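Notes, p. 3: input format for complexes.
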Amino acid sequence: MFAAHQLHGARRIFCGETEKLTSISLWWFFSCHTGSEVVLQPYEQKGAPNNQASKNHKKERASCQPVLDHFDQQYSQELGELWESARSVLLDPHSWQYGVMLNRFTAVTEITQILQSQGFSRFLLRTDVSTLLSDGPSPVSNSKYQARKDSLLSPPSISTCSPDDSHPRPSLQCYIHPYALRFPSQAHRPGHLKQYYLLNAASLLPVLALQVRDGEKVLDLCSAPGGKALAIMQCATPALLCCNEPDPHRRDWLAKTLESYLPHSLNSRVIVSAQDGRHFGHSEALTYDKVLVDAPCSNDRSWLYSCSSQQGEQRLRGRAKLPVLQAQLLRSALSAVRPGGVVVYSTCTLSSSENYAVVETVLNDCPETEPEDLWEEIAIPLSKYFVFSAAHLGHGQTPYKPSLQPQNSTVSSYHHRLGILVVPQPGMTWGPMFLSRIRRKK
Ligand SMILES: C[S@@+](CC[C@H](N)C(=O)[O-])C[C@H]1O[C@@H](n2cnc3c(N)ncnc32)[C@H](O)[C@@H]1O
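Output follows (442 residues plus S-adenosylmethionine):
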């Protein structure tokens, strides 16, 4: 049942003529912040970064020594040699790359031409990720919700059509640049949907791993500010996307994101909910086809640039509590998903105690679930874009449960199935991003 009391207000309507950007109005910028929708500084010239601007930028971003010391100690053990090069990327925000995800609900031809003329190229081509992207309606269905879905969907259509003819067909289009150049954010303009969203391209991987199909019922358990919810809506047209966020300020941000990118006609399909994600599994058990748990975590990039040593130390003190919350959220998600459905768990930290160890702890508790191998499906095909690392022996704090290791499986394939980690490296600065996919068998 759709819990009407959980809806967070009505989404405002933005539609009509799309904003026109010309190459003249486009400036080159680089960021003072890691997120989307941030304050930007113009380059003096198009193309290569301006030296003085780069120096000022670096000066503004002093790293937090207690956090760096902590990372050095932990990550050199967990990542070995990869940590030195990841560290150099994290300490040089000037090198960070940004992806430009186009919004299929707007006209993007002109933006595409501008991006291409500036040296951006399309990434995650269909040939790279053919099995991951929507290719028509879901082959499976949850009978309990089929009636509702049937009322939301048009009759079955050929696979190239969206279930709703008024919407352009699903198409995930993201552009990246080989250098750390960044498109300007689009300012909000009433009556106009935004044409693109800036993100760390590794953020798309949990969404690809979710493999959302048209007509499915999807829960984004930790949703604000909404970047992955938007990516889901580029990949497919679900019957329902429930975007949950308990923090009121972040929920407002989420609602604003959805309003700025999605047409009014999707309001009945994309809803905002305000629950504590740890309770979702009880209130809406066995309900969703797919659940994304993009968990609160020690965000390595932003923690490294904590405002002060005190803030950094305070964050580090709270770090030990995160795996407990993350495991609760993951268990709740596994309760909310229907038998046969999948949960993707993701974080933007390199920390194995928030990644592999959380997944392993929850798998030990939930015999009705099994991890799936993302190494073959994602890490190998996408290794030209990202540097991946898999779990290694002794990664976590929980002992291995032999029953979880298939008899015919090697130790390394077992570790691949716990999850994959994108480690930022020079020239491929995407990440950190951990993702794991777990299927509920019954
Ligand atoms: C990593 S962010 C999510 C980013 C988002 N998925 C995106 O792509 O834009 C984690 C979010 O989880 C939220 N959160 C924290 N505690 C939570 C809880 N108990 N249940 C659900 N969400 C929670 C935080 O407020 C935060 O907005």
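Residues 26-440 form a domain with the Rossmann fold fold (CATH 3.40.50.150).
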